[in-house]
Amino acid sequence: MANTCTDHHNDDAEPAPDATAPTPPEQTWHLTIAYDGSAYAGWQVQTKQKTVQGELRTRVRLLFRSPELKVYGGSRTDAGVHALDQQVSFTAPTPPDMTPDKLVYVLNRWLPDDIMVLRARICPGAFNPRYDNAGKAYTYCIAPGRRVNPLFARFVWRTPRPLAVPAMREAAALLTGEHDFSSFAANPGYELESSVRKLYRLDVSEQHGLIFINAVGESFMYKMVRGLAGYLVHIGAGHAPAADATRVLAARDRSQAADSAPPQGLFLAKVFWNDDEWRHYEPLIPPFTLI
Question: Domain of 203?
Fold first, then answer.
């Protein structure tokens, strides 16, 4: 599905309050943000816990003087998961001098250093990134059996031993395609009509002593990517042959796969707006170069 939002570029001065001015017309905004999720209990607002959505919503409500404003995200990332391309929307009364450049400037002054607004757009109609996207890509980072530079240690899963990458690739090929992925979702069937998903790509690559799992799909169930990553590490560690992936898929039972990978190695890497955009996608490796 094509993204119909339009870019605007004007001044970036902060808006001045005007108590006598009439209420401005509502506009739907579309933001792209990045964040280091290490200090957050995930994207979604939670009671008494710091979340990315909560931090962003507080600032947006202040900026637009709209205490009931709702902020929607394209992916409900888990606690400790990071994002390079999280998509956000909200609708708010928007003064004529509130431009996308100005919004980016002000929010980035107000937000904590581990959350950054990359881009802002005004949409001509209704828009919700959770439902209006055409697919997503995630990258999972692994340090197999080795110490890593402490400057990026919090962005990788350090496994206790080296991993057999060829076996991981063989299993990944068996998992690619349209399948029932109940065996890899934390809550199979939760709020879902179907647990069948189309996985366009599941690649395993090596660079600089690290292993990267790239998952590209139409949509993903809750903790599905972490489930896939944990299972591929299970295969790479020699706990099962690559062909076991076929059995696990057919079982449609979460207990038949390995434990999920921990959250710190996972990045929401890219959101697609056009149906074939994923075909030309090349993941940023390593993804934490943008954090």
Answer: 134-276
